């Protein structure tokens, strides 16, 4: 029996978290879900953005499945997502992006993995506006943080039979910060001669990904570029509704989709739960429950390929609940 923290979050979070929980339970893996919540909805109800029970639960269980949390623009608190990643040093943001047969997009055969450094860069939140009409932000890149994310990417490449790591940067302009990240990645790459190493400047990379996405394998990059490339890559495979993710540190992992709280569709039972369901499969892999994880992935593929029960973003008319039930039925038929 695993004890796992479940944070539903804001917007569509509760709907997709419910779906992911139901699908994981349907695999037969025994989970005792500890339900705690953080975010805008909790703040409105209690005056606290992250109640202490959230920290206690995370620190005790060390594994969490999390829905998206709204970050109000321009208001005086920092993103809870960024805060949790920093507080628990969840330095690897791992986001696999795969074409799903049956989903209509102009591309096929995409199978890449983004390794985004999760703890520094412009996300350190060091901003100032010392005089009217002028604002500054500080970008922090360290050798230590660059080295450990580069090692994560190369180790993953070796373990998952990947062929190539592409480091993405803007070192032609940001010679010290991005230059340090690039050079550190290059040094780390020397210990992995069996993996091809290449680098791309971020602007060129965006164009390359839209033109020839199937040429990329493992992408290694800094926090901000990783955030932007994640959404770009999601667009290549059918949208934000289908791309999962994980924030992994040395002793804790929080699994969450790439997408945000999608306030435009919240509460309507139309959100696509695939991204959080596949994040749940990544969580089962992390726990060593490989067979259950694979049965979820197979059931999702089968459901999408069938095309008769799809959510709106995938071209269908099914509700979040109906699509989730179709996945659960498929888990029952394949296991
Ligand atoms: P978003 O990802 O919430 O939505 C972007 C677009 O994609 C919207 O049109 C939305 O309807 C659609 N979309 C997203 N997920 C979908 C799904 N599962 N099914 C169908 N359609 C889906 O991005 P946003 O609107 O820029 O952000 C909303 C809020 O979420 C912001 O406060 C932002 O800070 C926050 N956010 C949180 C996280 C997180 O918790 N990890 C990540 C990204 C954004």
Question: Could you please describe the fold and organization of this structure?
Answer:
The chain is α/β, with parallel strands linked by helices. Helices cover 41% and strands 18% of the residues. The protein is built from eleven helices and twelve strands. The strands form two sheets. It has a ten-stranded mixed β-sheet, sandwiched between helices. A two-stranded antiparallel ribbon has the order 6-7. Strand 8 (164-169), helix 6 (177-189) and strand 9 form a beta-alpha-beta unit. Helix 1 packs across helix 9 (274-286), helix 5 packs parallel to helix 6 and helix 7 packs parallel to helix 8. The protein is globular, with a radius of gyration of 20 Å. The two termini are 20 Å apart. The model has no long low-confidence stretch (mean pLDDT 96). The site of nicotinamide-adenine-dinucleotide has 21 residues, from loops. Nicotinamide-adenine-dinucleotide binds next to loops.
Distinctive features:
335 residues, alpha/beta, ten-stranded mixed β-sheet, two-stranded antiparallel ribbon, 11 helices, 18% strand, globular, binds nicotinamide-adenine-dinucleotide
> What's the total helix number?
11
Strand sequence of the main sheet, in spatial order? Answer: 2-1-3-12-11-4-5-10-8-9
Mean pLDDT: 96
Shape: globular
Small ligands present:
nicotinamide-adenine-dinucleotide
Helix/sheet category? alpha/beta
Q: Which quaternary structure do these chains form?
A: single chain
Give the amount of beta strand, in percent: 15-25%
**C-alpha Rg, in Å?**
20 Å
Largest sheet: 10 strands, mixed
Give the strand tally.
Answer: 12
- What is the succession of H and E elements? EHEHHEHEEEEHEHEHEHEEHHH
Helical fraction: 40-55%
Low-pLDDT stretches are none
What is the distance, rounded to the nearest whole angstrom, between the alpha carbons of the first and last residues? 20 Å
């Amino acid at each position: 029996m695993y004890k796992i923290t479940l944070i539903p979050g804001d917007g569509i979070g509760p709907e997709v978290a419910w779906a992911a929980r139901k699908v994981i339970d349907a695999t037969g893996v025994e989970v005792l879900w500890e339900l705690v919540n953080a975010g805008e909805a909790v703040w409105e109800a209690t005056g606290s953005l992250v109640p202490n029970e959230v920290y206690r639960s995370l620190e005790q269980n060390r594994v969490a499945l999390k829905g998206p949390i709204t970050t109000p623009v321009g208001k005086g608190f920092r993103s809870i997502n960024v805060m949790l990643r920093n507080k628990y040093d969840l330095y690897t943001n791992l986001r696999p992006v795969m074409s799903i047969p049956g989903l209509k997009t102009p591309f096929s055969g995409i199978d890449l993995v983004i390794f985004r450094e999760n703890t520094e860069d412009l996300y350190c939140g060091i901003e100032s506006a010392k005089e009217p009409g002028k604002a500054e932000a500080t970008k922090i890149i360290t050798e230590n943080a660059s080295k450990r994310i580069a090692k994560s990417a190369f180790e993953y490449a070796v373990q998952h039979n990947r062929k190539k790591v592409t480091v993405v940067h803007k070192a032609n302009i940001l010679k010290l910060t991005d230059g340090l990240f690039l050079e550190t990645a290059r040094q780390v790459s020397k210990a992995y001669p069996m993996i091809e190493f290449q680098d791309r400047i971020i602007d060129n990379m965006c164009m390359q990904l839209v033109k020839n996405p199937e040429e990329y394998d493992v992408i290694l990059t800094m926090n901000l570029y990783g955030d932007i490339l994640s959404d770009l890559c999601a667009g290549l495979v059918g949208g934000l509704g289908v791309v999962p993710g994980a924030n992994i540190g040395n002793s804790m992992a929080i699994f969450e989709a790439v997408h945000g709280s999608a306030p435009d569709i919240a509460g309507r039972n139309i959100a696509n739960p695939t991204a959080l369901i596949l994040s749940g499969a990544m969580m089962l892999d992390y726990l060593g429950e490989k067979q259950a994880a694979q049965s979820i992935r197979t059931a999702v593929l089968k459901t999408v390929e069938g095309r008769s029960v799809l959510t709106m973003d995938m071209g269908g008319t099914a509700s979040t609940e109906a699509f989730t039930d179709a996945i659960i039925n498929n888990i029952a038929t394949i296991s």
